[in-house]
Amino acid sequence: MTASPTTHDAVSDATTVRPVLEVRGLFVEIDTGDQRAAVLSDVGFSIAPGETLGLVGESGSGKTMTAKAIMGLLPRLTARVTGGEIVLDGVDLLGLSTKQLREIRGDTVAMIFQEPMTSLNPAFTVGDQIAETVRRHRGVSKKAAWARTVEVLSDVGIAAAERRSRSYPHEFSGGMRQRVMIAMALCCEPALLIADEPTTALDVTVQAQVLDLIRHMREALGMAMLFVTHDLGVIADVSDRVVVMYAGQVVEQSGVLDLFRRPAHPYTEALLNSMPGVEAGPRGTLLSIPGQPPAAGDFPVGCRFHQRCGYAAEECTTAGIPLTVVGAQETRCLLHTDLPSRPPLVDLVPEDEIVPEVLLDAEPREPR
Amino acid sequence: MTRLVGKRLLAVVPVMLIVSLLSFALVALVPGDAAATLGGPSATVEQIAAIRANLGLDEPIVTRYLGWLGHAVTGDLGRSLFSDQPVLGAIGERLPVTLTLAVGALVVAVVLGLPAGLFAALNRGRWQDRTISAGAAGSLSVPNYFVGMVLIIVVSVSFGWLPATGYTAFAADPAEWFRHLVLPCIALGLVPAAVLARQLRGALVGVLAQDYMRTAEAKGLRGDQVLLKHALKNAAIAPITAVGTQFALVLGGSVVVEQVFGISGLGALVITAVQQRDIPLIQGIVIVAAVLVQVVNIAVDLSYGWLNPRVRVA
Amino acid sequence: MAPLFRPDREPPASPSTGVLDVALAPILRSGLSRRNVLRLLAAGGATVVGAPLLAACGGGSGSGAAAGAASAPLNPTGTLKMTYHLAPNSMDPIKMTTGQFLSYVWPMYDTLTMIDLNGDVQPMLATRWDYAPDGSALTLTLRSDVKFHDGTPFDATAVKVNVERVLGTPTSPVRGDLQHVTGVEVVDPTTVKLLLNGPDAALPAVLGRNSGAMVSPKALSSGVDLNTQDGGSGAYKLVDAKLGAHAYYERFDGYWDPPAAAVKRLEIDAIADGQARLNGMRTGAYDLSYLTPTQVEPAKAAGLAIAEQRSLWYIHIALNWSRGQLVDPDVRRAIAHAFDRDAIVKSIYFGHAAPASGVFPDWYWASSPKVPGSFYTFDPAKSKQLLAGKDPVSFEMIFPAGSDPYPQFAALLQQQLKDVGITMTPRPVDINQLATEYSQGRTDALLGGGGQLPDPTLLFRTLFVEKAYFNPAHQTPPDLATAMAGTEKSTVRDQRVSAVQQSVDIIANDVLNVPLIYPNVLFAYKPDRVPSYTPSSVGAYAPTRGVGVT
Ligand SMILES: Nc1ncnc2c1ncn2[C@@H]1O[C@H](COP(=O)(O)OP(=O)(O)O)[C@@H](O)[C@H]1O
Ligand code: SF4
Ligand SMILES: [Mg+2]
Known about the structure:
The complex is a heterotrimer of chains A (368), B (314) and C (550).
Chain A: E1 4-5, E2 21-31, E3 36-47, E4 52-56, H1 63-71, E5 79-88, E6 91-92, H2 98-104, E7 109-112, H3 116-119, H4 126-138, H5 142-155, H6 161-164, H7 174-186, E8 192-196, H8 204-221, E9 224-229, H9 232-238, E10 241-246, E11 249-255, H10 256-261, H11 266-273, E12 324-326, E13 329-331, H12 345-348, H13 351-354, H14 357-360
Parallel strand pairs in A: 4-9, 4-10, 7-8, 8-9
Antiparallel strand pairs in A: 1-12, 2-3, 2-5, 5-6, 10-11, 11-13, 12-13
Chain B: H1 2-29, H2 35-39, H3 45-55, H4 61-72, H5 87-122, H6 127-141, H7 144-158, H8 174-208, H9 211-218, H10 223-235, H11 237-260, H12 266-276, H13 279-307
Chain C: H1 15-29, H2 34-57, H3 63-69, E1 79-84, H4 102-105, E2 113-115, E3 121-123, E4 126-131, E5 137-142, H5 156-167, E6 181-188, E7 191-196, H6 203-206, H7 217-221, E8 236-242, E9 246-251, E10 265-270, H8 274-282, E11 288-291, H9 296-301, E12 305-309, E13 313-319, H10 329-337, H11 341-349, E14 353-355, H12 380-387, E15 394-400, H13 406-419, E16 423-429, H14 434-439, E17 445-451, H15 456-463, H16 478-489, H17 493-510, E18 513-519, E19 521-525
Parallel strand pairs in C: 1-10, 1-11, 15-16, 15-17
Antiparallel strand pairs in C: 2-3, 4-5, 5-7, 6-7, 8-9, 9-10, 11-19, 12-19, 13-17, 13-18, 14-18
Helix pairs in contact in C: 10-12, 16-17
Bound molecules: adenosine-5'-diphosphate, iron/sulfur cluster and magnesium ion.
């Protein structure tokens, strides 16, 4: 297997159709009060129509930032995109005015959030909040918008949608609220749905139902989805392909099966090892990754993972590591190029040992 | 809803009783009464005594209060001791002026305070925010009559843009009515504007950080929909409460500002009434002012239910 | 009928200044006096606006500017807008509680006699008045060409109706003015006889005031609400009255003395706050305004003309001479000599006043040559000598709370008394309650105003007769009682003079009050609008008869 450094915009899957979303070389800085810290560096990936891309990484790795950057929802006063492109349906969103962005948001691309309890406006009925989205993007009458609202609410499994549409958020449970959020995101049938940890805050019993609903709706609408989670188990459930982020960078990009069979990056491997249900890592060591991910503004020179990497060598600490294509995968690790003394990581991992049952299991997983 | 209003209105009754009793007692307990003034300068001792007896001023305060109350509950607030006008008539002549001033002041408060609060919140921590905060702090520390005097000197006397004194009824000349209102309303409205801006900024900073605001943005709503619908309704409780509280203060403030601008409103009337110990008139003004304040309070309370569905009685 | 103890009725005090003082408290605490704050403000305005205005008017102040503008002809269809510091409690003359409210009466009501600007009684509806030789009646000869605004002719019956109305209203503040009138007899349509229980030399002057204001008998019988509506025969008809706010009048075309109504419309706005009045003048909202001494310089700087008039108005310390150490005439005398009146004139009234020792100024016919303004010389040594061997004197003096310039005035008096070893404790009292507080014997002394009456007997009645409400001693020295009674009995001025002067002398010698100054009456007017203006020397009234605009 010949590995060669590639540019960041390499797309692993040779998709012939135009991607719904293509993120290239995205850099984002944030004002932390005393300094400007890079939170995203050179983030790139693409999503094909109908495809679900999983975005995984520990908390703080920049997943939400990435999602927000796509939505144009970065903190207005503190965050700034300093480079890159976010091409949605052929249009570079970064070149759009706020006004133009507002036309696209909620229409072509929609988002559901991690916090169902607080993401709905307590002062308006849920129906109102959905209907206003419909009216905003479809320009239909109040009546038609309301009809669509009731329809989409019942689509997401809310019983007596007609009546419930007139209820206020506080009259709904968390799971129900997330269904409302899903309905709100889907009411204009977006081409791309961004789901940022949509089940994380939910009761475990409800998580599976909501996840199911999202999967079901994605299929029904045939839309593309960026599914953000820190939970590899959920990734296994929903994604076609997976982007792994660490410290504001994409460190691996693989098909979901590849990812679990032969993680191309030591970080992915560590993540897999720390998955509950995996008793011990391939080396029988890791249950959770030791140490803390570096905070934005505090990223180490060289490989950003080197302080926590079991394979780290001298070379890993000197210069930034490029993303390298390794077969159908991409990885930001020197093990594939400059460290010939070591065998490629993929070969070190026995396939049968790491394929979790969950991968093969279409049923919602039991609470862990 | 109607029941809620009904309940609130019922609660007004004891408030009015207490307010009327307090004001009656206050006026009765401070030295002096109307008789000496009514008698004129050449009055004799007997004349003053006769006037006092005639007005019932020599009766015990409790008897007098109950007598007043007995009429008041039937809607009869009596007549001014000095002008012999029906109290309600005298108040009715002045109330529109003061009410116009108060409402105008609140309009100024909203026109200045709302955008200032919005703008400050949107630019939290930046120089714009700090400028507005400083401006608000400044406005709060300058008394309204002083603002009035400065406005008069600059706007009226120096530039001659607006009148410095008096009031023209709307019916008489709408343009003049407006011109006469501008400066006193600004003088009266600056403090409520500052209070509103502060409260709104504070509330908005909190609301803008809320997840549902991100949702509103994510839906692609227009900027004005996001701010004025989603943010404002949630941020409104504190500012509306503040404005409601300010209403009473503006009513009180109009007493001084009316003097500065030579406007004959309720403020001027109350000064004379108190100085002359014109008890029926004082009582009438107190009652009317208290009713106004209560009405505003009820309106503010009702707005809570509308603004925040969670406080609605299930 | 002037208020004795209601300094709010007089400049520069006004009810509002009390409120403003409360409001100004934070600034005042910073060390600036209220006056200085107001003057700063006024001066600020003057420096901003004064220059262009002065340039335009060629430096107009006082009569010079007025004379310059006098060449412009009067405009008979013009409107005279004036602002006055007082608002009447009622437009009904016999319900008015304060003498200066007459300013609102004169345009709309004719009075039987007229008090001219010098304070002298002149004919008006009555062309002559004659006392019965025994003083048992006063016969009035009436004009025959007078109609009320409602068309009713004015005649003797109208006089009867009106006089009987006063007699039948025991609660009227002016009832006491007719204390010697027992009835009215119509002799013929132009002759009417006021029946008296004794001679009353003050009656002609009284008939020029509230109780002499003639209301249409038709208006009275048809129940017109005189509180706010017209019922007169004056040069102007009342067209719009809002009590406490304004009174607007329009020319009465059938008036018997056409030049009296020099303008088509007369508007009087009551503005209690002096600064607001001056602002109204500066911005051109008014042609004529009542002025306070502190405002003279700012008004001049703004190009306004000043009309200044000496007057029968005085500021004094009313003493309850039946109380405490004030019973001792030497103590009262010591107090009277303790004051540097020239300093008061200068520092409190900015020169717009004259020192006073008696109740009448030197120029007035009723003054006594024995009691000139300088009668109580500023003589601390004498005061100390008078007090030698006595217990240390201390007394309390009330003054109008917060009314400019009384607080400063009281403080100055306190200091000057202290210099002769007298402890005076000033106590501010709500303006309208000073009279009650004083009259009911709850204090020793009162700093306030008085006078402003067109007849000396009227003054004696308010303050010095035994049964006067405002005489807290409730007694009168017998010689004074006799002298004052004498001022009523002789109905010819020359014959009255000695009785009046005798009264004045007794009051001054016994120090029954301590006159301090006679303030001048001040008005500001726009020289380009009002050719000239002469205030009344009776006091702080606002005569408008015959005043026109260009
Ligand atoms: N509003 C903010 N201000 C400052 N730093 C932020 C802000 N939001 C996120 N960050 C930082 O940016 C980095 C990425 O955060 P995020 O995208 O939320 O991570 P996650 O992968 O958990 O979604 C983290 O280091 C976080 O501390
Ligand atoms: S580059 Fe080096 S430190 Fe980084 S992941 Fe690869 S082996 Fe580990
Ligand atoms: Mg996140």
